[in-house]
Amino acid sequence: MVQIPNPPPHSSPAPRPVPTSADVARLAGVSRATVSYVLNNTSAVRISEPTRRRVHEAAKELGYVPHAAARSLRAGHSRMVLMPAPDFPVGPLYSQFISELQWALGRLDYTVVQYGSIGVYGDEAARAWAELRPVAVLVPGAGLGPQGVSVLKRSGARAVVTLGPECVDGAHSLLMDHEAVGHCAGSHLFDRGRRRIGVVVPGEAGLESFSQPRLEGVRRALHGTDATVTELPLAYEEEAASRLAARWRELDLDAVFAYNDEYAMLVMRALQDEGVRIPEDTAVIGADDLMLGRLLRPRLSTVHIELPSGRDLAELVDRAVRNPGAAPETHKVLGASVVHRDSS
Amino acid sequence: MVQIPNPPPHSSPAPRPVPTSADVARLAGVSRATVSYVLNNTSAVRISEPTRRRVHEAAKELGYVPHAAARSLRAGHSRMVLMPAPDFPVGPLYSQFISELQWALGRLDYTVVQYGSIGVYGDEAARAWAELRPVAVLVPGAGLGPQGVSVLKRSGARAVVTLGPECVDGAHSLLMDHEAVGHCAGSHLFDRGRRRIGVVVPGEAGLESFSQPRLEGVRRALHGTDATVTELPLAYEEEAASRLAARWRELDLDAVFAYNDEYAMLVMRALQDEGVRIPEDTAVIGADDLMLGRLLRPRLSTVHIELPSGRDLAELVDRAVRNPGAAPETHKVLGASVVHRDSS
DNA sequence: TTGAAAGCGGTACCAT
DNA sequence: ATGGTACCGCTTTCAA
């Protein structure tokens, strides 16, 4: 970081205390109650227009901002929907999903907050979330057990929704069945006549919860056939891909499901550099249906993944919040379908 | 979404009230004060071992979780660092930056919260953030003016840090000078003998604050030379790229800076399909130094971007929080350097 | 139409 | 070593 010379400090260290509604009341010459009525447009109470004006002016003059904690403490509830911030590099799919969800929940007057719990896991994390008394908690991935759900509910969360590989007792569950992704890919390769199938498993941490089910899905698709499945650990580096490609002949595979499109590109490039013809010698298929796959030559076959729409999920949350007694819903929300292009 | 049959509701609608420290005290047969002392390990007070045990047991039995709002209300401050959640698809660079930052702030005992303000802008957003009384606010991008900074400070934020194109009055500013990125690219292309330079400007919303400065940077690099700069609006779609490529001859450009590596790949593919030779006919350079650029043929030249380290930024925040009176620091934090490969 | 006051859940001072 | 209690900022009866 390059320091840039700054003007000398012009604000003296006089950190005035933060203005409260009492300050506003004092300045406006009214009671705190009146301030509250005015600023919240309380319909049950009529306040005269002159008073309203004085209150508003006082508030503006002081730069008054209400204290959310005090408010929700008094109210006994908030409209905060909490989700843990993702701790792995997140693709455009998930990015967009989050955005959409935030927008949809915002429309329903919820506030979405992503809580950065890094290095904190499982029930410990659940406790930390519970301290904020969110009205709902949305947890992607595994990592939240029935214990955690229970902690959250006992601390007032009216809805706990998990988005993961399996349903969690007591919580609404959106099943994102990544096995289906692998199953799709496996079946496709099999149908195309491939029998010696490699499956790339990323070396990077945090991806296991996606990669393992995808691998399992391939295994399941090929179970009971004469096809073989070979696990191919691979770090996301050119070097690693080259090494893998170098022993390709000896691996004797005629197809590879590369975990996702990015790994597929990595593998495809390494194989091509090694003189392996795609798809003649080896078929390649990725997943996520990224733009980049369309741009590769040969065009990359892929498994298109459909995440739940943010709107649907927002509605599920809202329903759950309004009716916390209802039985947890379980939905399969991950649509997987092959997009066949030229690499397979 | 596919509905899966559920077991009948087994929890009756008896949502017990959330246990408070008073409940714990009652169950343990002690006062609320004692509960507080025990659960916080208050060192100024000795509590006998048997009492401690009873309190801990009672807390566990009730599933007691302290109420963060009440605590910070009483304490008069929290350790929450708030940042707005990004509302645009975020690349691996930024993803990693956030992760690192959360980790580093976590080590300093701060809690990072990404606040989902979608559809709320400028000072309105600042007010919403201020309601949470964060101890520090970190704002990427433009969109926060001196007004907003003032609102935040007056509501108790001890540090406001902006990460954007220009410094904001009253806030610590980390200057992410995307002009430098464009300047790098422009100079590089000029040095390689190119004179008719196109600059891709993404059509997607939310990217203007990056793309415009990058364009300006190219302009600045080429100002006063005989080189020309042509703005090339482009949506991130194959179609749009094809249309652009179709009129390439008539555009008569010998180089293009493609905003970033992803757009570069899009453009490169379209140009190659059109029979334009790279780099002979047209040089291409991207930005962000993604893995994918290394995998393209020809290998993609790019502008490597160095974001500030999460640790450094966390330390800046901590320093600012501990010493709120200090003059705002301003740092240039965006390192840009050309990685010359084969496409330019 | 407005004000006084109770209380939300903790913490910390001052007694005991 | 422990308990009583005031107080943080705000909302909401209830009374005037």
TrEMBL record, chains A, B:
Transmembrane segments: none annotated. Residues 19-75 form the HTH lacI-type domain. Pfam families: LacI, Peripla_BP_3. Residues 1-18 have a biased composition (Pro residues). Keywords: DNA-binding, Transcription, Transcription regulation. SMART domains: HTH_LACI. PANTHER family: LACI-RELATED TRANSCRIPTIONAL REPRESSOR, LACTOSE OPERON REPRESSOR. This is LacI family transcriptional regulator. It comes from Streptomyces cylindrosporus.
